[in-house]
Every structure is written in structure tokens, then in C-alpha cells.
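Before a colleague's protein record goes any further, I have to sign it off. My question to you is simply how this chain folds and whether the C-alpha cells agree. I do not need a full report, just your reasoning and any doubts. This is what I was given:
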Amino acid sequence: MTDKPRTQGATVRLTGLPNAGKTTIARFLSDRLRAEGHRVEVLDGDEIRRFLSAGLGFSRADRHINVQRVGLVSEVLARNGVLSVVPVIAPYADSREAVRLRHERSGAPYVEIHVATPVEVCRERDVKGLYARQAAGGLTGVDDPYEAPADPELVLTTQDRTPPDSADAVYAVPAARGLV
């Protein structure tokens, strides 16, 4: 542990398909950051949906509202010295861009990581049974669009690496910017 905790905040957004590994990577990353003395908060998409965005559905408009709510919370945390790790699908490019612009306007650092796990691998993992229930429709990346980021700071493929290796690759991005 460092002698003095750092006070620089930032948002590290992990975007990708369901079961891409976003939350697992976020947990490994946050453990490392905390061990280094950083103030860290993981804004998990499932938890946000249950509490902050309860009542929202999965229409394009509701998904946009959800991403904006998470973006606001992460930006406020970042402005106040917290490293916010955000493993949220955030399927639409315009929604993610609005969050990036909000961060830029406030001076809060923002890093976008595309966890680019192929849908076939995500389907095999299916830790939440989402792909098995997909027949009802509306699964991101299958019958609802997922717009991959055009210019993320990192495109991370997870199918050939361990979660700790993936977290190390993510860590390297804010480290290179002097954020950790």
C-alpha cells in the first residue's frame, strides 16, 4: 500500500456484450487499485439496473437514460477523486459519446475500454442464462444492436487471456495517462 492515497479521479468504462467479462475484469482491476491506495468504486450494470435505474426497460430510450445516469454518477465520483470503474454494456455509441463529452466538459478523465469478446464466446459463458433465454428477444448483440466503440483507448479480447491478465491490460491504459 502507498504512503498516501491518490486523490486523482477518473472513469474507466468497460463496454461490451453481455458475458464479455466486463464485471470480472472490473473486480480484479478495482482490487489492484485499492491495494495501491486508490479510492475506487465499481458501478456494476446489474446493480445500477436494480437500484438507480429501477423501472427502466430495455428500449433504446431507456437504455440511453440508464447510460446517462451511470455516466453522471461516474463523472461526479471522478471529479471528487474517486476512480470509477464502470462495467456496463452501454450498447449505443451516441449514449457513450454523451458521457465522454460530459466528462470532458467537467475536466474529469475518461477512459473507454472495449471488451471485444466474440458473441460465440459470450454465449458459451452465459453465466446469467441470458443467451439461453434470448428467444424472448431483446438481447444486446444478438437481436438488439451493440455499436462497438469507434475509437476506444483499448480493444481487449478476453477469450485467450485470464481475467487477471485482462485487468492488467486495462490498468496499463490509465497508468500510461498518469491517472494511477
Summary: The first helix runs from residue 22 to 35.
